[in-house]
């Protein structure tokens, strides 16, 4: 019985099948009405790299059918860069020397006002692993403050218990983002040198706990480049399938963070070029036509513009990865003489540096207005609000 179920095969077997797939199998996957793991393995295969155009066409049709011409926008807000974690690839790891800070209530309000003035209604609050300075209570308080102003508040932080997720939802949080980073246990243990995040299973089960506790949606993903990208993509696919099967009323989102430059000397083990990243996005779209697919400002403007609406349906814009980055930017810009290009340039550069380093380098540095104009030029409509705060609650 089990052997007849395609999910019975382990990820290694699927990876092998993917690596051995030929163009005939890719074409068969493209014409399957309800593709599953077998088709996904073919769509992310090396053989499918020659058929990326066909994947793109299919992905665009499905994206248009389920999301129209809209791109929903969100913005990340870094609450704190304190972290007790030791992720070898991250600029916030506790062994990295840099100024640490967290937003106080008034500073958070200033950040929120700066983002509201830009038109944002959907905010993702971020912190590192728990520390006494930025703990669970601090996070709950920050969610409450943000939920008074924004229609949609989600959190990307440490893995929590069911009770904590319940409290967070009660404070006005509608969803969480939590990446497994890599599904390879051995590598996971090597990369996460200390801290709570070392607990692979506790993190793996966090999205299910959050949905069980009343969150409306969860965003999952892997940090592409840490491990064999095809292997991680296949595991991510299986994780999505499990969550959607169990929590069919909730939303699952998939993000595609690709490892990029950060403060430190970590060198990723695998290269994920633009073509492979695009192939993965198209494969997820083809297999999950109605699932929001997310792309952040880690990626270059040209790549983001090219892929918007083809597979991706949700994007961050005008992001700062420093604590207090938006308020600093607003204040410095105000000080700049209007029309004085040289001074404005200097202000923007200072603002981007903002004393401490960000978690990673932002590659698409456009402001919200410029980004939205670029989307409209491509026939897409950026949507700042697609959720109403009155629907909050369990
Ligand atoms: S990835 Fe998260 S947990 Fe790891 S060091 Fe960075 S902020 Fe801390």
Structure explained in plain terms:
The protein is globular, with a radius of gyration of 21 Å. 42% of the residues lie in helices and 10% in strands. 47% of the residues are buried. The chain contains 16 helices and 9 strands. Mean pLDDT is 90; it is low at 335-354. An 8-stranded parallel beta barrel has the order 1-2-3-4-5-6-7-8, surrounded by 5 helices. It has 394 residues and is of the alpha/beta class.
Write the layout of secondary structure elements.
Blueprint: H1 11-20, H2 23-30, H3 37-43, H4 52-67, E1 70-78, H5 105-117, E2 122-126, H6 136-147, E3 152-156, H7 162-170, E4 175-177, H8 185-191, H9 200-204, H10 206-212, E5 217-220, H11 229-246, E6 251-255, H12 274-287, E7 293-295, H13 301-307, E8 314-316, H14 325-335, H15 341-353, H16 368-377, E9 381-383
Parallel strand pairs: 1-2, 1-8, 1-9, 2-3, 3-4, 4-5, 5-6, 6-7, 7-8
The structure holds iron/sulfur cluster.
The main β sheet shows up as: 8 strands, parallel, barrel
Helix count, DSSP H or I runs of 4 or more residues = 16
Fraction in helix: 40-55%
Q: How many extended strands?
A: 9
Oligomer: single chain
Structural class: alpha/beta
Q: How far apart are the first and last residues' alpha carbons, in Å?
A: 38 Å
* Architecture per CATH nomenclature, i.e. the level-2 architecture of the largest domain: Alpha-Beta Barrel
Q: Strands of the biggest beta sheet: in what spatial order? A: 1-2-3-4-5-6-7-8
CATH class of the largest domain: Alpha Beta
What CATH calls the topology of the largest domain is TIM Barrel
Query: What ions, cofactors and ligands are bound?
Result: iron/sulfur cluster
Shape: globular
Low-confidence stretches: 335-354
């Amino acid at each position: 019985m089990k052997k007849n179920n395609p999910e019975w095969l382990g990820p290694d077997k699927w990876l092998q099948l993917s690596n051995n797939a030929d163009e005939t199998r890719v074409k068969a996957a493209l014409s399957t009405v309800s593709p599953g793991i077998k088709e996904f393995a073919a769509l992310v295969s090396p053989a499918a790299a020659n058929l990326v155009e066909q994947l793109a066409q299919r992905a665009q049709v499905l994206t248009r059918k389920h999301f129209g011409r809209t791109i929903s926008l969100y913005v990340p807000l870094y609450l704190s860069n304190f972290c007790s974690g030791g992720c070898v690839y991250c600029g916030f790891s506790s062994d990295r020397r840099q100024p640490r800070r967290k937003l106080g209530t008034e500073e958070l309000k200033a950040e929120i006002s700066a983002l509201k003035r830009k038109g944002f209604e959907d905010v993702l609050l971020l912190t590192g692993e728990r520390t006494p300075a930025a703990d669970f209570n601090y996070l709950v308080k920050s969610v409450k403050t943000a939920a008074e102003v924004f229609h949609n508040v989600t959190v990307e932080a440490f893995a929590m218990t069911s009770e904590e997720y319940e409290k967070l939802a009660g404070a006005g949080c509608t969803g969480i983002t939590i990446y497994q980073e890599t599904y390879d246990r051995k590598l996971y243990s090597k990369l996460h040198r200390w801290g709570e995040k070392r607990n692979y299973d506790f993190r793996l089960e966090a999205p299910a706990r959050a949905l069980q506790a009343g969150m409306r949606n969860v965003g999952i993903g892997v940090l592409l480049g840490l491990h064999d990208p095809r292997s991680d993509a296949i595991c991510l696919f299986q994780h999505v399938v499990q969550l959607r099967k169990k929590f069919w009323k909730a939303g699952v989102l998939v993000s595609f963070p690709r490892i990029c430059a950060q403060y430190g000397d970590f060198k990723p083990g695998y290269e994920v070029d633009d073509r492979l990243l695009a192939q993965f996005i198209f494969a997820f779209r083809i297999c999950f036509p109605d699932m929001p697919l997310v792309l952040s400002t880690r990626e270059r403007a040209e790549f983001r513009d090219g892929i918007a609406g083809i597979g991706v349906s949700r994007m961050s814009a005008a992001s700062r990865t420093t604590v207090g980055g938006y308020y600093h930017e607003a204040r410095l810009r105000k000080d700049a003489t209007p029309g004085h290009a040289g001074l404005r340039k200097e202000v923007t550069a200072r603002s981007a540096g903002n004393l401490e380093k960000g978690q990673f380098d932002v590659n698409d540095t456009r402001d919200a207005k410029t980004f939205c104009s670029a989307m409209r030029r491509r026939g897409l409509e950026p949507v700042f609000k697609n959720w109403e705060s009155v629907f909050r609650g369990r």
